[in-house]
Design goal:
134 residues; mainly alpha; 93% helix
């Protein structure tokens, strides 16, 4: 066989293949192009959503830091208030000696049969005496 005959034969085979499978191949080509475009579009959407998610994550992290600082400050303020209250209570508590003296006075007064008004006057006198001594 000559080269011309082989070439003509090959061209005929290509033409027959185009006649038989040409429309199907074009349909497949169009479908692949459509699928490729859809995949590219979806990939773009995924990339865009990933960027949005990253931005939201940064925003949430920033808000969380702010909340942590506010919580830490509120905690520190509360602890400070508790310390102040504890110091005030420590400073305001009654001295044991003074309290003992008050109980002795109440006991003595009750033994002698005094009135409630007299008892209150006696307690006030004892408190004033303790203030003068202290």
């Amino acid at each position: 066989m000559s080269d011309e005959h082989v070439q003509a034969s090959s061209q005929e085979v290509d033409r027959i293949r185009d006649i038989i499978f040409g429309s199907q191949m074009r349909d497949y080509g169009q479908q692949f192009d459509t699928v490729r475009r859809d995949l590219e579009r979806l990939q773009g959407e995924i990339d865009h959503l990933a960027e949005q998610l990253t931005e939201q994550d940064r925003g949430q992290a920033d808000r969380l830091q702010v909340l942590r600082r506010e919580l830490r400050k509120a905690d520190d303020d509360l602890r400070s208030e508790l310390r102040e209250a504890a110091q005030k209570l420590t400073g305001d508590k009654v001295d044991r000696m003074d309290l003992g003296q008050v109980f002795i006075e109440i006991g003595n007064y009750l033994k002698t049969g005094g009135t409630t008004t007299g008892l209150l006057k006696t307690l006030v006198d004892v408190e004033q005496e303790a203030d003068r001594e202290g």
